[in-house]
């Protein structure tokens, strides 16, 4: 899916990486590898970068990866 967001000439937003608990690093890597293999995501070079946020599911074991778009949404 490709989408466009009109940011009216704003400077690109590049958020820093967020720290992830070492306990979940392997699960994060596995999730990224799986979504790359399924072609849901792909590598891209861009001046725009939003942080990945690791959400722990209710069972306390599984994770969900989310993207923090608040900085970009603030430009629209």
From TrEMBL:
<protein>
    <recommendedName>
        <fullName>Reverse transcriptase</fullName>
    </recommendedName>
</protein>
<dbReference type="InterPro" id="IPR043502">
    <property type="entry name" value="DNA/RNA_pol_sf"/>
</dbReference>
<dbReference type="InterPro" id="IPR053134">
    <property type="entry name" value="RNA-dir_DNA_polymerase"/>
</dbReference>
